[in-house]
TrEMBL record:
The keyword Nuclease does not apply. InterPro entries: Actin (IPR004000), ATPase_NBD (IPR043129), FUZ/MON1/HPS1_longin_1 (IPR043972), FUZ/MON1/HPS1_longin_2 (IPR043971), Mon1 (IPR004353). The chain crosses the membrane at residues 674-696. It comes from Paramecium tetraurelia. GO terms for cellular component: Arp2/3 protein complex. It holds the Pfam family Fuz_longin_1. Keywords: Membrane, Transmembrane, Transmembrane helix. This is Actin. Residues 632-718 form the FUZ/MON1/HPS1 second Longin domain. It catalyses: ATP + H2O = ADP + phosphate + H(+). One of its GO terms (biological process) is protein targeting to vacuole. It comes from the Eukaryota.
C-alpha cells in the first residue's frame, strides 16, 4: 500500500474517499490504488453520548483514527462511527473526515472536489448531512456522492450484478445501463466482521493459547491470510482431508503478544474453510438466515427486468475485501450455474422444449478490494465529471436538499469508455472501438435541461415527482437538471392548493397558465404528474387521460406499495425502483397524446365476421386452466378476443398496459415468457404472472394471467396454449386472421360514397373503440392529431352532460360545432365525427343517421367484443 502522495496527481484536485464499515480507502484521483487504507475507527477519551465537535478546546483535538487509534486503547475509548455501511454517529464521522483530510491527505478543502461513496438505499437525509459537513464545516469546492455498486461497474461495463461484501454488510445490486434497479437489491446480514467473529469463536472453543487482547486481531489475520473456499463444495471430503492429517491443509500462525511481547504459535485447521463457507452455508453462523449467497444473487436477477437478466448473469462483479478468498469466484460461478442448469432442466422435462443455455461469468478485478475507490478515481478523470458534482455555490444557493439528487455518470458517458489494462495503465476507448448497444427497455441519456436552449426546442415536457417535489422521471434530459424546475412547480402548486382550492378532493386536473404556456398537474396519492406545454390547441381532456394512464403505468412498474413507502418516507427515492423500465413510461407518453385507446380509456378490437369471432371465443373459453384469471388473444395494436372469470373486474387500462409492455420489450415476442406484471385495475398492491407466447410469425399472441407463479402453472399455461394453437391450425385460422389484419381498419360499405364524412371514431360503452381509416391521412399525420384534440373536447362535454344526470342523454345527445365536429350517442354506441364545414344541417343529421343505422342494423360483433366473459 502506498503511503506517499503522488504530487503529479495532486494537481487533479479531486479526492476519493470510500468509507466502509470496517475500512476507509482514500486518495487522490488518477492513482490505481488509494494512498491510505485505514480502519474506520475513532479513539476518543469522551463518552460516546457526549461526543461533540468543538474547535476551541485542545481537549477535543485529542483523538485518533485508523491504526493509530488502536495504540491508545488504554487512554481512550474506541468507537466505530459506521454500522452496516450507514453512518451512526455524525459527530465522530466528522472528526474522522477532519483528520483524514488535514492529517492524511493534507488537502486544502476549498480547492478540492470530493467524491464520497454510499451504500444502496442510503437514506436521502444522510446525503444532506454529508453535504452540510463538507460545505459548511470544511468549505469544500465540490462534492459528488455515488453508489458503491455503480462505481464498481465503472471499469467493466454498464450492466452487471455487483456483489459488494465488505467488513460490515453485503449487498447484491443489479445495475442496468448504469442505473441501479432499486426494487431488486438484496441485503445479506453477513460480512467480513461476522467471519472474523466466527473464526474467533472457533479458536476459543479449541482452547488455543492466544492473549485475550490479541484474539480479534489474530482471527482477522487468519481469515485474510489462510482463508479459502472449497472448489467443489464437498464439506465432508474437506473434513476427511484434515482428519487424515494432510500437511498441505494445516498452517501455522506465528504471533507476538502486544502487551508482554512474548511469542506464540497456533495451528490453523478447519477455520481456513469454515469461515468463508459461511457465505454458502449461513446456518453455520446464524440460524435465522439460511439463504446462501448464490440463491440470493439468483433471486435478485430473477426479479430484475426480463430482458436484462442474461446480461446480469454474464457479468457478476465482485467488490469488497470479503470476496478476496481463494476460490471464491470459481465457487460462486459454479453454484449459480448449477441453479440455472437445474431450473432449465426441469423446464425441459416438463415442456419437452430445450431452452438456450445461459453462461454465468463471475468477473474478478486485479484491484478487487479497491474496486469502488478505483471506480471513483476513473470517474474523476472524465471530462463529463464536472457536470455531475455539486459545487459550493450551488449548495449555498439551493440548500442541502439539492445534494440528495444523484446523477449516474455511467449513463452520461455513452461515447467514451475508460478501462484499465493488465498493465494497470489508463486508456481511453472511443466509440469506434467500443460499440455500446442501449438496453432494450432503457432510453438513452440526453443532456438536455432547463438551463440550456435545447430544452426549449420541445413543445411538451412531462415530469413525474413525489408530492415533496422529488424527481421520479422526466421525458427529456435528466432529473438532476430538472429538479429546480420541479421544486418551483411544486411550491407554486402547494400554494394554489392552500389558497385557491377549498374542495381539493373534487379537483382532478389543475392548470396554471401564463402567456402561451400551460402547466397541467395531476395528483394521485403521493405521486404528481406534470405536463408543461406551449401548444394552444391541446385538449385538457386528453392531457388528463394521458397523465392518468402515465400514473397507472408507473404503478404497474413499482406497485401501489410505492405510495405506502412515500407516505412513511416522503423523500424516498422512487426513481431507483424504476430500474430499466423507464422506456415503458416513455412509450406511454408517446402514445398518450394521440392514441384513441388511452384518450377514451378503450381498447381497439380487430374487426372480423361474426362466425370467425364466435369460433375464436368458444375455443378460448374451452382452454380453461385452474387459477387462470383471464386469457387474451391479441396483437401489438388490436385485441382479438378476451375470456375472463365471472365477477372478475378486468379494466381496459390493464389490457393497454399489457400491450404497452409487449411493444416496449421486444423479447416478449420471441419464444415463451413467464413474467410478473402489476395490473392496477385488477390489483395495484402486487404482481400477478403472465404467460405470453406469440405465434404465426410473431404477429399474434396469447396471454394468460394467473395469480399462481409456480413452475407447474407455467407448464399448464404452455399446454393450454399448444392445444389452442393446434385447433387454430386445424381450421386454417392463420390465413383468416392475416386477412383481417391486412384489411383493418376497414371502410364501412354503407358510407364509402359519403364524401361529406371526413372522419369518425366509434366507442362502445363496454370500453372498445372502432377506428376506421378510410381517408388518405393516417395516425401519424398532423391532421389526425388535430382531430384527436377536437374529439377530446367533445368527449369531455359529453361526460359532463352524463355527470349532470340527464336520463335521456343516451337517446337524445347530439352536439356539433361550426368546424364540422360533433358527437352523438345512440343506445350503447358513441360516435364522434367530422364533416365538411360547408355541409348543411339536414345533411349532417342525415349522415349521422346513416352511421347510427350501420351500427344498429349490421351485426355489431363485426366491430366489438360485446361479451368478453
Amino acid at each position: 500500500m502506498q503511503q506517499t502522495i503522488d504530487k503529479g496527481f495532486y494537481q487533479s484536485k479531486v479526492c476519493v474517499i470510500d468509507n466502509g464499515t470496517g475500512f476507509t480507502k482514500m486518495g487522490w484521483a488518477g492513482n490505481t490504488e488509494p494512498q491510505f487504507d485505514i480502519p474506520t475507527v475513532v479513539a476518543d477519551h469522551q463518552e460516546k453520548q457526549k461526543v461533540q465537535m468543538s474547535k476551541n478546546t485542545n481537549e477535543n483535538l485529542d483523538y485518533y483514527i485508523g491504526y493509530e487509534a488502536y495504540d491508545y486503547t488504554k487512554s481512550h475509548n474506541i468507537f466505530y462511527p459506521m454500522k452496516s455501511g450507514i453512518v451512526e454517529n455524525w459527530d465522530l464521522m466528522e472528526k474522522f473526515w477532519h483528520r483524514s483530510i488535514f492529517d492524511y491527505l493534507r488537502a486544502e478543502p476549498d480547492e478540492t472536489t470530493f467524491i464520497l461513496t454510499e451504500p444502496p438505499m442510503n437514506p436521502p437525509e444522510n446525503r444532506e448531512n454529508i453535504a452540510e459537513i463538507f460545505f459548511e464545516t470544511f468549505n469544500a469546492k465540490g462534492l459528488h456522492i455515488s453508489v458503491q455498486a455503480v462505481l464498481s461497474l465503472f471499469s467493466t461495463g454498464l450492466t452487471g450484478m455487483v456483489l459488494d461484501s465488505g467488513d460490515g454488510v453485503t449487498h447484491c445490486i443489479p445495475v442496468a445501463d448504469g442505473y441501479v434497479i432499486g426494487s431488486c437489491i438484496k441485503h445479506i446480514p453477513l460480512a467480513g466482521r461476522d467471519i472474523t467473529q466466527f473464526i474467533q469463536n472457533l479458536l476459543k472453543e479449541r482452547g488455543e493459547n492466544i492473549p485475550a487482547e490479541d484474539i480479534k486481531k489474530v482471527a482477522r489475520e487468519v481469515k485474510e491470510k489462510y482463508g479459502y473456499c472449497i472448489g467443489d463444495g464437498d464439506l465432508i471430503k474437506e473434513f476427511q482431508a484434515y482428519d487424515r492429517g494432510d500437511k498441505n491443509k494445516f498452517k501455522t500462525y506465528y504471533g507476538k503478544s502486544s502487551v508482554t511481547k512474548e511469542k506464540y504459535t497456533i495451528d490453523i485447521g478447519y477455520e481456513r474453510f469454515l469461515g468463508p463457507e459461511m457465505f454458502f452455508h449461513p446456518e453455520f453462523l446464524d440460524g435465522k438466515w439460511r439463504s446462501p449467497i448464490d440463491e440470493v444473487i439468483d433471486k435478485s436477477i430473477q426479479t430484475s427486468p426480463v430482458d436484462c437478466r442474461k446480461k446480469l448473469y454474464q457479468n457478476i462483479i465482485l467488490s469488497g475485501g470479503s470476496t478476496l478468498f481463494d476460490g471464491f469466484s470459481q465457487r460462486l460461478e459454479q453454484q449459480v450455474q448449477l441453479r440455472i442448469d437445474s431450473r432449465l432442466q426441469k423446464y425441459e422435462q416438463r415442456s419437452g422444449f430445450k431452452p438456450a443455455s445461459i453462461k454465468v461469468n463471475v468477473t474478478q478485478n486485479p484491484f478487487q478490494r479497491y474496486a469502488v475507490w478505483q471506480g471513483g478515481s476513473l470517474m474523476a478523470l472524465q471530462p463529463q465529471f464536472e457536470k455531475v458534482y455539486h459545487t459550493r455555490q450551488e449548495y449555498f444557493e439551493r440548500g442541502s436538499i439539492h445534494c440528495q439528487i444523484q446523477c449516474c455518470l455511467l449513463a452520461i458517458i455513452l461515447n467514451e469508455y475508460v478501462h484499465i489494462t493488465q498493465e494497470n495503465q489508463y486508456q481511453l476507448m472511443s466509440t469506434e472501438s467500443y460499440q455500446y448497444k442501449p438496453h432494450v427497455i432503457n432510453i438513452s441519456y440526453q443532456e438536455i435541461s432547463p438551463d440550456i436552449p435545447e430544452f426549449f426546442t420541445h413543445k411538451r415536457h412531462v415530469f413525474i415527482m413525489t408530492n415533496t417535489g422529488r424527481p421520479i422521471y422526466v421525458r427529456y434530459g435528466s432529473e438532476i437538471k430538472s429538479s429546480i424546475f420541479l421544486a418551483t412547480i411544486n411550491a407554486i402548486f402547494q400554494k394554489f392548493l392552500l389558497f385557491f382550492f377549498e374542495d381539493k378532493e373534487k379537483q382532478t386536473l389543475f392548470k396554471i397558465s401564463h402567456d402561451k404556456s400551460n402547466i397541467y398537474i395531476l395528483q394521485r396519492n403521493q405521486i404528481t404528474c406534470i405536463c408543461a406545454t406551449n401548444v394552444l390547441q391541446d385538449s385538457e381532456f386528453i392531457i388528463y387521460q394521458m397523465l392518468d394512464f402515465l400514473n397507472t403505468q408507473l404503478i404497474s412498474i413499482v406497485t401501489d406499495q410505492a405510495n405506502v413507502q412515500l407516505t412513511q418516507k416522503p423523500n424516498y427515492d422512487l426513481a431507483y425502483s424504476l430500474g430499466g423500465s423507464r422506456n415503458l413510461l416513455t412509450l406511454a407518453l408517446k402514445n398518450g397524446l394521440y392514441s384513441p385507446c388511452i384518450a377514451f380509456n378503450s381498447i381497439c378490437t380487430l374487426t372480423m365476421t361474426a362466425s370467425l369471432r364466435s369460433f375464436i371465443h368458444n375455443n378460448l373459453k374451452e382452454t380453461k386452466v385452474a387459477n387462470v384469471i383471464a386469457s387474451l388473444l391479441l396483437t401489438e395494436t388490436y385485441v382479438i378476443d378476451i375470456w375472463r372469470q365471472k365477477n372478475m373486474e378486468f379494466k381496459t387500462s390493464d389490457i393497454t398496459i399489457i400491450q404497452s409492455m409487449i411493444q416496449g420489450q421486444g423479447q416478449l415476442k420471441k419464444g415463451e415468457n413467464w413474467i410478473p406484471v402489476c395490473l392496477p385495475g385488477l390489483s395495484a398492491m402486487g404482481f400477478v404472472y403472465a404467460y405470453i407466447y406469440f405465434f404465426y410469425q410473431n404477429t399474434i399472441g396469447i396471454v394468460m394471467i394467473s395469480d399462481d407463479n409456480s413452475l407447474d402453472m407455467f407448464t399448464k399455461c404452455k399446454e393450454a396454449s399448444s392445444t389452442l394453437i393446434k385447433k387454430f391450425d386445424q381450421n386454417g385460422l392463420e390465413q383468416s386472421l392475416f386477412t383481417c389484419l391486412q384489411n383493418n381498419p376497414i371502410t364501412p360499405k354503407c358510407i364509402e360514397n359519403q364524401t361529406q364524412i371526413k372522419h369518425f371514431i366509434v366507442r362502445h360503452i363496454s370500453g372498445q373503440v372502432f377506428l376506421p381509416m378510410f381517408q388518405p391521412f393516417g395516425k401519424n399525420s398532423k391532421t389526425f392529431k388535430f382531430y384527436m384534440q377536437q374529439y377530446g373536447e367533445l368527449y369531455k362535454d359529453f361526460m359532463i352532460s352524463q355527470s349532470l344526470g340527464n336520463s335521456d342523454v343516451k337517446q337524445n345527445y347530439f352536439v356539433w360545432d361550426s368546424k364540422g365536429f360533433g358527437i352523438t350517442q345512440y343506445h350503447d354506441v358513441i360516435i364522434m365525427f367530422c364533416f365538411n364545414e360547408l355541409i348543411e344541417f339536414q345533411q349532417i343529421v342525415q349522415n349521422v343517421h346513416t352511421l347510427q343505422k350501420m351500427f344498429r342494423t349490421e351485426d355489431l360483433i363485426n366491430f366489438f367484443i360485446l361479451k368478453p366473459s
